[in-house]
Write a structure and sequence with these properties.
By secondary structure, the protein is mainly α. The protein contains four helices and no strands. The longest helix is centred in the N-terminal third of the chain and has 28 residues.
């Protein structure tokens, strides 16, 4: 297991996730009632999906042993660190439904990124 790859891609995932979430924070700050809107959550999850897809796609392009294990570790670490940061900053626990939806999204995103990388012939081609 390559801990350097795990650390780098976990940092990429967290930083890109924060950058992608900034507009949603501004949107929520201007209209506090938007948090009850399903459109807000749909757009938020679509953005998270895009960020995760790109991180996992570029992770699958790296030549390594057990790429699925590395990717799952990066995904779980990213989620745990994000949930911990949310608790430390805002004092909010992630509800169980969000954990379930995020887990489904992570599994789907990992599978799609792997399939796309294999279909393009770029699976494990760079170091």
């Amino acid at each position: 297991m390559n801990l350097k790859i795990i650390a780098i891609y976990t940092c990429f995932s967290i930083v890109l996730g924060i950058i992608a979430g900034i507009p949603f924070g501004f949107w929520m700050a201007h209209d506090e009632e938007i948090i009850d809107s399903p459109i807000y959550y749909s757009l938020n999850y679509m953005t998270g999906f895009m960020v995760s897809f790109f991180v996992y796609y570029f992770l699958f392009k790296v030549r390594m042993e057990r790429p699925i294990l590395h990717t799952v570790i990066v995904g779980v670490l990213s989620y745990v660190l994000a949930a911990l940061a949310l608790y430390v900053v805002a004092g909010v626990f992630s509800p169980d439904l969000f954990l379930f939806v995020d887990s489904l999204l992570m599994v789907f995103t990992i599978g799609l990124a792997r399939h796309t990388c294999e279909a393009r012939g770029e699976f494990g081609v760079r170091i």
